[in-house]
Amino acid sequence: xxxxxxxxxxxxxxxxxxxxxxxxxxxxxxxxxxxxxxxxxxxxxxxxxxxxxxxxxxxxxxxxxxxxxxxxxxxxxxxxxxxxxxxxxxxxxxxxxxxxxxxxxxxxxxxxxxxxxxxxxxxxxxxxxxxxxxxxxxxxxxxxxxxxxxxxxxxxxxxxxxxxxxxxxxxxxxxxxxxxxxxxxxxxxxxxxxxxxxxxxxxxxxxxxxxxxxxxxxxxxxxxxxxxxxxxxxxxxxxxxxxxxxxxxxxxxxxxxxxxxxxxxxxxxxxxxxxxxxxxxxxxxxxxxxxxxxxxxxxxxxxxxxxxxxxxxxxxxxxxxxxxxxxxxxxxxxxxxxxxxxxxxxxxxxxxxxxxxxxxxxxxxxxxxxxxxxxxxxxxxxxxxxxxxxxxxxxxxxxxxxxxxxxxxxxxxxxxxxxxxxxxxxxxxxxxxxxxxxxxxxxxxxxxxxxxxxxxxxxxxxxxxxxxxxxxxxxxxxxxxxxxxxxxxxxxxxxxxxxxxxxxxxxxxxxxxxxxxxxxxxxxxxxxxxxxxxxxxxxxxxxxxxxxxxxxxxxxxxxxxxxxxxxxxxxxxxxxxxxxxxxxxxxxxxxxxx
Length: 594
Fold this sequence. Notes:
It is a single chain. This protein is α+β, with helices and mostly antiparallel strands. It contains 13 helices and 19 strands. The strands form five sheets. Strands 2-1-7-6-4 form a five-stranded antiparallel sheet, sandwiched between helices. Strands 9-8-12-11-10 form a five-stranded antiparallel sheet. A hairpin with a 2-residue loop joins strand 10 and strand 11. It starts with a helix and ends in a 9-residue tail after the last strand. The chain crosses the membrane at residues 20-37, 297-322.
């Protein structure tokens, strides 16, 4: 197993993708083929049942509408004045004129409703009149079961299917199986007494046409049972008479599967609340299985075709995915050999295209970093060289000044001694034995020495003040960061103003850095020039020759040593003064041992 996994891990991505795609497709197709067919079988059976029940409901609705219409016709007949007059006759026969008028009324209804085969009116005294119907024997019609049933339920219209054994016939030749009879009692609205009965025979042609327009599957059919279990209507089919009533459970609606003559049949039924009839649909199960068998065959064909197409498409699409990756691998090999001018060209914006763009961006950043490191190292070497040159020159001056100070002491020239002492300190601290870092105490002393020298020249023009907390004296800073900025404040700020000026030098801790501020109340800097200087200090713009190097040299030394988060920022208002802010990290002095 481990060897197989190792073999699999060593295969190419294209091979793995093809295998994974085909496996996913195969699993999906097999799942759809086996489970899908089973699910569809159950679903199609349920759908067929629902569809059959809907058709049964539709047939039931059409039949109910048809019967209700004829009930209305029967009701209108019973309300006719001539019919009411006939029904109220007791022991007397109607005249010929009355019979003619009644016959005219009945003829009008039969002509408008072609399904009516005949209409008979029978009053309670036994007299009758009809249209196309007559009494077979002389026995009284009031003794007929249909007449007696109508008297017992005067508010209902009875529907009699297959009216066999009546003492009534018609001039038309038809079988009792082709007839449906409606019986309705006529009631006196004043006394609510039953006056007689209206008997109406109907052709089954309309009901047959309704059923003939309904198709259940390929060989299914529908039929109707009355409330007694007798067949009201059934197509010519020997299966109908083999369906036993006991198979159909009680309830308004239901379904079951029953075997008849060696075949399974699906039987669905629904009871009509209007006529108390049961509408039954019968569908052979073979109709279901035939559809499922066809689906299985089609599924196998589609599965085979899909697998073939999936294999071809998988090979094509994996190729389109792997080609740019291989191209990217080739470019990386060239880059590995030092060829940083390579670039990935992609026509897409997908993940591989984005990866290629990132690869190109990475190479550009590497080139930029190489150039930046080269430029920074060059600047750092230049700055170090300038500092070294500035250190070498004071060696001779420092020794010479020491001699001049000794000679001034011989002549007791105190002013000269103070200035020379300050200048000596200035050079001594500037040299600092070649060290780049000095304590804040020495940096402040260096700046004070510079101010003593300047005061001898600008005594009436300049005041200065140092406000450096003593707890900052022990921290280390880059040397010679205050003096160039104080010099700028004197020559560009104080000298350019009218009257005496003042320079203040202060420092404080801010989070993890020391912030020095050199503030003068000189002429200030115009806003455009101030913005340009700050842009140069932030590295956003190149320095031009019109600007000196002192301010920018200090800024570059700090940023080259500690990063661009530190350095110089200038704030100024024209005519009010300027503040130069130095941000320098807090650096503790390192004790030397040994």
